[in-house]
């Protein structure tokens, strides 16, 4: 359906430009937008490589296990059905860490890995567990301490102060995370 909407919008714009005799504007805008998209993708690739590299080094050096131990009281509270020292806990920590660094694209494969690990604990393979739902809720809100991707986008767009969004981002993501965790707990009680 979304593809149809985009097709209608693009075709409508081209037809209108042709009707008004300004098809050259569409051509020039298409070329400029393609160049901007490539530049933006290259800028974001650098940021993603940096933070993914840091996360991989943290995983290989044992820092993830250390963070997992430090976060274990919170993680145990949020994911009570996951046994201690299970691989799912490390995957969950990696996912939450990527979200905290504002790396939504990096958090996706990490979240999939965490879901796969949680699935190994699932007695009903065709139904999501409460822990899976909690992880999905947390990934959806994505509590962010350092919105690296947004800062990179703002920097690439020429922002004078790309980091001025730090405080609002932290506040909004904290509120949304707390709200989703409250709803998650209510749903756990209602749908036992």
Automatic annotation (TrEMBL):
Has the keyword Transmembrane been applied to this entry? yes
Source organism, top-level taxon: Bacteria
Transmembrane region positions? 36-55, 62-82, 88-112, 133-153, 165-183
Residues annotated as domain Nucleoside transporter/FeoB GTPase Gate: 42-150
Alphabetically ordered keywords of this record? Membrane, Transmembrane, Transmembrane helix
Establish whether keyword Transmembrane helix is in the entry.
yes
Entry-linked InterPro entries: Gate_dom
How is this protein named in the record?
Answer: Spore maturation protein A
What's the name of its gene? spmA
